[in-house]
Amino acid sequence: MAKAFASKNPVSQRMRSIRRVLWIVLMLNLAVAAAKYVYGVISGSASMQADGIHSVFDSAGNVVGLVGIALAVRPADEGHPYGHAKFETYASLAIGALLLLAAFEVGSSAIAKLVSGVFTVEVTPISFAVMIGTLAVNLGVTTYERRCAKRLKSEVLAADANHTLSDALVSVGVIVGLVAVSLGFPIADPIMALVVTLAILATAYDVFKHAFATLSDHARIPEDDLRATAMSIAGVRGAHRIRTRGTEGEVYADLHVLVAPDMTVVAAHELAEAVECSVQRRYPNVVEVLVHIEPDDGHEE
Questions:
Q1: Cα-based torsion angle of the residue sequence 58, 111, 180, 184 in order, rounded to the nearest 10 degrees
Q2: FRET label pair with 97: which of 40, 68, 182, 262, CA 20 to 30 Å apart?
């Protein structure tokens, strides 16, 4: 006997919250990108221009995230009985692809400067003011977005928070490069741009790793933890064949529960509901639980 239970969690409200965060971050990223890139062009700093391009791709990633959330928020239908939540994961993959493109743009520009041997960067106090100011904004955005990602169990926000963090680390590298240039080492500017490239590639790897965990149906809840939750219900003699999958924000779980062989259908139904409620109280991100009732008569062995 099996029974599926749908969560009453406000999934659409979660998606709206994610979308609101993405809009706020988009506006901030555009402001940061404009400040760094424009002054990078004015001063001739390759690393500042590279950092500005990185911030532009942050903004593009926000747009991709907004599109993904718009698709993910749609309710389940005949063709997608489990809903559209994985579109959030596809958006994360698109952000990863944008990061790879950004790495190519930044890296090729830095290599071209190193090959030509022409270094025209001009360092002024304004250069440091721009970089330190945008660094402060990036750190604030990263902290805000990471907290929201954790609270909302959002892959897009987590990926974008890591992206913004890499932007902050890159800004630190650019500041170091500007210091080196001011001390008489102009070659440090394109070298730091290459460091930017490596940071972007590392971020892309992290984004792809988390997205593939969802698409490959990686277990979202440890089996032993879910078993312990089920076993806490009076009448449950055992639990096995435990599986979980889905996105971090929308997890689907199924398990087989062993009960007394002489338990009535009504009692078994009530026990299954109790298991479902216990699982969803412990794990609010579980949107559906499938409980299969089996008699504890040794057949499962």
A1: -140
A2: 40
